[in-house]
Design a protein that fits this description.
The protein is mainly α and about 120 residues long. The protein has 7 helices and no strands. The longest helix has 21 residues. It is elongated and about 55 Å long.
């Protein structure tokens, strides 16, 4: 069994919403909800895939979230200002060394930054 269309997706989501609104579910209902969730997830992955963020977008987001600019990032990490600028302009990808430095600085796991390696 699988979901083959947007109409079937909508119907599956309505069933999931009704089950979730019930609160207490029987073991059979929980199994059905889990299976339906897997089918919805598989359909969405195939039809609505989201591309990974670019290194520039990811770095820009992390900088905004931490409230730092390029100069502050350079001072705190010792990454060359030109390297930071090239990454933010999309001219240079993350290197393994930069990933390690940025992961430590921003407090994220290296795999968050290593999407494009």
């Amino acid at each position: 069994m699988s979901i083959h269309s947007d109409a079937e997706l909508e119907a599956a989501q309505e069933v999931m919403d009704r089950l979730l609104a019930q609160g207490e579910l029987s073991s059979g209902e929980e199994l059905y909800l889990d299976a339906l969730s897997d089918l919805v997830g598989a359909y969405e992955d195939d039809h609505f895939a989201i591309a990974p963020a670019s290194d520039a977008d990811l770095l820009r987001h992390l900088m905004e979230a931490k409230g730092v600019n390029q100069i502050e990032l350079h001072r705190s990490t010792k990454i060359a200002r030109s390297t930071i600028s090239e990454i933010l302009s999309g001219k240079k990808p993350f290197s393994r060394q930069i990933i390690g430095t940025l992961a430590d600085y921003f407090g994220v796991h290296k795999t968050v930054l290593a999407n494009n390696l």
